[in-house]
Design a protein that fits this description.
heterodimer; A: mainly alpha; B: alpha/beta; seven-stranded mixed β-sheet; 6 helices
């Protein structure tokens, strides 16, 4: 038989795994009448059997590829950080509802998730059915806030193993957000630093591109102490410097995975220069600075 | 108004006439005795048919579908066409496409990059129609790169999304450029804006040069 690059070339028709591998990894310079070739070569008795085998092979290949892609750790991290945000946001919304409701019943009603927790932990028997519902809602709210905390711990534990340099420099939660916003560490590693600088500020960016607004100076990296803790006049420079180093950190994490503490030190130095006071002790204590081996504070 | 492909009919759902194909429901669309409504607001090809564009589809043809995504449109195509190769680049939507392909023996899902036809030329045979709906920059380039799959009398059914090329430019300019780029491999037979079903999209029917 003639040599060709068809997916079934030299494959035992019964060997589904080999066929799936070939569908995934194979290549050809140009298409050909594969069904006819397959029948000629005895890979299938007729077109119907060929298509049946093709269906099995493409389904198996696609399933394996989907499975691999979805099990990658950075994808798990993305789900975790998005769930964390969802839980926090929903808990806050419900806490507002609880506060509204409680305000109609108790003189000492407070606000926020803390108050919902307080109400949920109350020992007193509910006075009537509506109070029962109110307390139950407060319990749900507290449970949701707990889950948000659990998810945050998970993100803090997991990010350093997925992206060690990025997690060290940005803090695990911000690192996970950046990965989430660009849908994966691999795509984050391919972004230019100017994109990383405004990730999370897409609305402002597109308003700017349409010509109706100034360019955004920073997106989600604003939560980093190096941006937020810098004087407003210097924040653009700080955001640019931070985004530059974060981009390099993401690339090192994606392509080598090795921890490079030098990167943190270079960033610390650069930020100190921008702030114009090399002795700055960095007053911030937010979570974004956590886990930083080369932190200057 | 041109004829609908065999296997596609206008049928009444809740009192209004809608396009429909026969097959297992895939995305919660209304059904009626084995027929399922094809929503032109969720499908570029559905909109092209709804607007009466001459797609040249008769039913039963071999199709290469570029940008199959979660299979909303691809499932309808597989209902009325013959062997349908569904190329999708992203893993997440492909998961949903797998559900549609499960019950459709003629729908072959491929996790491939439509900008790299050599990575699936070993699987895909020459086809009668290419349906393309990819939201990436360089949509015309994707179409020309895949022209080698199309038989001489085949049809390219392309939906160009202006915002994928450049959000800041006037869609009309984006479409002009894309049509210019298509000229190298295709002769454009018909174009039509897909409003009101899809904003800033141009439906294109073309045939290989």
């Amino acid at each position: 038989m003639t040599e060709h690059a068809g997916w079934f070339a030299g494959i035992d028709p019964e060997d589904a795994e080999a066929a799936a591998d070939r569908v995934r990894g194979g290549a050809a310079d140009s298409p050909a009448d594969w069904p006819a070739l397959a029948v000629d070569e005895g890979f299938a008795d007729d077109d119907a059997e060929y298509y049946e085998r093709l269906h099995d092979a493409t389904m198996a290949a696609a399933r394996a590829a989907v499975h691999e892609a979805e099990r990658a750790d950075d994808k798990q991290l993305i789900h975790a950080v998005r769930s964390m945000d969802d839980c926090e946001r929903t808990a806050n919304e419900l806490a507002e509802r609880v506060a509204e409701w409680a305000g109609t019943r108790f003189d000492d009603a407070g606000t926020g998730v803390d108050y919902a927790r307080e109400l949920a932990d109350r020992d007193e028997e509910p006075a009537d059915p509506s109070e029962t519902r109110l307390v139950a809602l407060a319990e749900r709210t507290a449970a949701l806030a707990d889950e948000a905390d659990e998810l945050r711990s998970y993100v803090e534990e997991t990010t350093p193993s997925v992206a060690p340099n990025l997690a060290a420099m940005a803090g695990p939660v911000l690192a996970a957000r950046l990965i989430s916003l660009s849908s994966g560490l691999d795509s984050l590693a391919k972004q230019p630093s100017s994109t990383v600088q405004v990730l999370g500020a897409e609305d402002a960016l597109f308003a700017h591109l349409r010509g109706s607004a100034p360019s955004p100076k920073h997106g989600v990296i604003f939560t980093h102490e190096y941006v937020r803790g810098t004087r407003p006049e210097e924040r653009g420079s700080a955001a640019r410097a931070l985004a530059g180093k974060l981009t390099i950190a993401a690339r090192v994490d994606h392509y080598s995975g090795e921890r490079k503490p030098d990167l943190d030190a270079q960033l610390d130095e650069r930020i100190a220069t921008i702030r114009g006071n090399n002795g700055d002790a960095g007053a911030g204590d937010d979570d974004t600075a956590a886990n930083s081996g080369g932190d200057d504070s | 108004m041109s004829d609908l492909p065999g296997g596609v009919e206008r049928r009444a759902f809740d009192g209004s006439e809608r396009l429909a194909t026969r097959g297992k429901p895939h995305y919660g669309e209304p059904t009626d005795g084995g027929w399922r409504a094809w929503d032109p607001d969720r499908s570029k090809l559905g909109a092209m048919l709804e607007l009466g564009m001459d797609t040249g589809l008769a039913g039963g043809e071999t199709v290469l579908y570029l940008g199959a995504a979660s299979g909303t449109t691809a499932s309808h195509v597989a209902d009325f066409a013959g062997p349908t190769y569904g190329v999708e680049f992203a893993a997440r939507p492909l998961r949903d496409l797998l559900d549609a392909a499960e019950s459709r023996g003629n729908l072959f899902p491929l996790l491939k990059d439509a900008r790299k036809p050599e990575t699936y030329a070993h699987v895909v045979e020459p086809v009668d129609a290419i349906v393309q709906d990819v939201a990436t920059r360089g949509q015309a380039t994707v179409a020309t790169a895949n022209a080698e799959f199309l038989r001489d009398d085949g049809r390219l059914l392309l939906a160009i999304k202006a915002r994928s090329e450049d959000v800041t430019r006037d869609p009309a300019d984006v479409f002009d450029d894309a049509l210019d780029d298509l000229e190298s491999a295709y002769e454009v037979l018909e174009t039509e804006r897909l409003t009101p079903h899809h904003d800033d999209h141009l439906g294109v029917v073309a045939t290989p040069r």
